[in-house]
Amino acid sequence: MSGTACADGTEGVAAGRDGLPYKLVATDLDGTLLRSDDSVSRRTRDALAAATEAGAAHLVVTGRGVPWTRHILQDLGYQGLAVCGQGAQVYHAGENRLLTSVTLDRQLGGVALAKIEAEVGPLYLAASRDGLDGDVLVGPGYALTGALPSTPLTDASDLWSAPLNKIYIQHPELSDDELAEAARRAAGGFVTVAMAGQGIVELLPLGLSKATGLSLAARRLGVKAAETIAFGDMPNDIPMFAWAAHGVAMANAHAELKAVADEVTASNDEDGIAVVLERLLG
Predict the structure, then answer these.
(1) Low-confidence ranges of the chain (pLDDT < 50)
(2) CA angle in degrees (0–180, nearest 5) for 155-159-163
(3) Which of 83, 88, 231, 269 could form an S-S bond across to 61 if both were Cys, CB 3.0 to 4.6 Å?
């Protein structure tokens, strides 16, 4: 990341040079920056490097908590800020420390779960604990996507024994869209409901979104919303698109995100981020 030192010790971003109209490139991870095999292609790496060389910052903005994001940032050689946990965490990768962290009110979380289950029946549960090394607890029946580290949740009371960033819910019969809609209807006044990927419906602190963390990180970098381009693929990226000047949906994106995007690029497996950045860089 190129930039100049700010009074608070973070890096400011120099004005983008000719050919790149944005100072900040915000990218989701799964389904966006990451290919289906969880890799980042050489073409996309080179395009992001060219963007930073032209004076922009690359900011990862992901639903993953820090423990599930750190290894990807290390592989990218990423030293700057990252927004993790669906906006709950602003993380300094180079210093391996949290700058901000928002947790779910556990009483409200319990009420929300009870209201949702009263409407749709029993749920399969998982939860992400707060902190740099917070465990992801996975309860019986919950289908975890990918080979990410987790801890079995065998005693339901353990769900509430430490601060949480979010709760994940699944239903044995409802689709992700149906479950998210039912959860908002039943508990939207207590938590934010986000649909972040296949099998990933989340209950977050009320009012939290990717835009929350993105705006905090951008302020630290000295960058405005009007100077930001954002890439994503799922409905949880809608607030990020609303905040940024230009939102780019991947070809593989959910229909709800495509509907509000400024443009649609190629898929994550076809280097959609690189396609746009190469065009902007000329």
Answers:
(1) 1-17
(2) 150
(3) 83
Mode of pairing for the β-strands spanning 11-12 and 4-5: antiparallel
Sign of CA dihedral 13, 261, 91, 69: negative
What is the rounded CA–CA span in Å between residue 228 and residue 127? 31
pTM, 2 dp: 0.92
How far apart are alpha carbons 136 and 153 in whole angstroms?
9
**Exposure string over 9-36, b if 16+ CB within 10 A, otherwise e:** ebbbbeebeeebebbbbbbbbbbbbbbe
Q: What is the pLDDT of residue 148?
A: 85
What is the reported pLDDT for 15? 42
CA–CA separation, 202 vs 197, rounded Å? Answer: 10
180/86 Cα distance (integer angstroms): 16
